[in-house]
Each structure stands twice: as structure tokens, then as C-alpha cells.
Amino acid sequence: MSGITSEDLNAALTGDPEALEVHLELVERDVVIDGHVVKIHCHCLTVDANGQVQPQRLAEFMRNAVANYAIPRAKMAKARERDFRNNSSDAVAALHEQAKRSFTDLANTGEGGEMLLFLLAERFLKLPQILCKMDLKTDKRMHYHGADGVYAGVSDDGILKLFWGESKIYGNPTDAIRDCLASIAPFLVEPEHENAEREQDLILLSDKADLNDPKLTAALRLYFDRDSKQSRRVQYCGIALIGFDADYYPSGGSKGVADEIAAAARNGIENIKKNIGNRLKLEKLDHVEIEMLCIPLPSAEGFRKAFLKAMGLSEPKGAELSE
Question: Start and end of every Anti-bacteriophage protein A/HamA C-terminal domain (predicted)?
Fold first, then answer.
């Protein structure tokens, strides 16, 4: 086997896309900016029958998927096989706890955004994670180096599209756009050399890229072997997730209307398109394919606190999380 197909990558996807839609509603898709190869997608928190949004429920949903994000596919598959043989769930439960322990309890953690990027990449964009970097951490209170995630797609002509991921969840969308695109740019535009920002991740991919199938995994790793012709058939792309405060969610006991929130979010995307376009030019990303995920939130800080609480890492105090 010398190449990877879209069917191979689809088989590696994890999770139920419909479960994601319980918590996040797609309000805009494939928004383009003239002169750039970028697609903007916007999701809002869903509104329940009581007119409320539930960031805590979103955080709990994310927690339940941490093993898919933080545990290598091959290791998870072995645990499932062991549980099947023993009519048990012990091995998978142990890996879920291991995954939770790999997350940091730092108050300013960005790992909630990285986890959200993973869920949207796999369940919305249909791009599987091919390098499980959380499993490489040696200190839970440190973030790993390199991109926030590495994902893969295949073009119609068989080119492997390597998507470098970066997420920033800030109060201000302008700050999130600036820092997110500045962080991802080196992975996408630096010339190839051994000191390039992406180099360490490429080395890891040559050894640890995983599709949970020995033959497929071997074929995938050839794309990162400099002595293989397949290494010339890799296109660098990006997934950029920005989360930011939005004032159109219900607060203080008021009730929200889903259509009104969606309309406000669409207007917001129109307002930040110019900002995104300007930043793409500054970072020389005009001709780089980027999937831009925009997540307006009731509170960026509240999202971080809700995620830490759901993970059992911190007990938020003070302001309500939904505000």
C-alpha cells in the first residue's frame, strides 16, 4: 500500500456528529473572503426549551470524549479488545481516567480550546487526528510544544492535506484572531529546514502517526519519511479555532431565542471578516487553505472554568459560568 484514501481517513473518525449538534449549532458555513483561501464556519451554543444555553453541558460532553483525544487509537483498540474478552469495561475506563489526568489544572489553560478543536475537526470537518500529542506529555502542568493538533485529509488527486491546528479562546475576538493566526503561520509558511517550527511534529509523525490499522498507519507514515517519494505529496493546511465573548446570549434570568442568537452571530462574522483578512495578509497566509472555526461564547473565562470543573481539576468560584 503506497497511498491513503479519503475512505481510509473516514474510517478513523471518532464519535457521533449528531451528539455534537446537541451542544453546538451550525449558523454559518463556508464563508469566504475575497483574495484568500479560507473558509469560515460559525457555531453557537444551542438554546434549550427554557431559553437557556448550557456551557456546563458542553464541557461535560467534551470531558466524555477526552480518551478519543488524548489516547492513541492503537492503545484504545487494545483496551476495547481486552474488555470484550473479559466482558468488562475496566481497561477503557482506566484509559479515560488516564486521559483526564493528562490535562493541566492551570486556570489559564488553553486545553479546553484544543479539545473543542479536536471535536469539530473530527465530527464537523471530518478530518481525523493523526498524532495524539497529549500522550507525549511528561508534565501535566505543561502544554506540549508545537501545534494544538495535527489532522489529515486527502485531495481529489491523492495529495495528503496535513492540517496544523491552533486554538485561542479569549474575551476579545480581535485578540483571538491575531494570536491564533500568528501562532499557526510558521507551521504553514516557513521554508523546509531542520529548524522549522513544524520540524519536531513532522519527526513525531514519521514515528507515531496512527490510523489504528498497521497497514494504513505504515502507508501514512511514508508521507513523513524524507526518503520516500510520498513525502513530496503533502500539502500544509490549517485549522484555526477562535472562541470569544458574545453579548447576545441570555443572562440574568432572561430567555434567549435561537434564531435571534444565530442572526447576531452571522452579523458578528461579517464584522470580523475584514479583521481575519487583514491578519491573513500580515501573516502571509493569503494562499494557504485554512478552516476557520468561530465559536461565540457567553464567556471565554466561563468556558475555561466549566471545562476545568467538568474534568474535576478545579472548582470554579465567583461569577456564574453562563454569564
Answer: 26-310
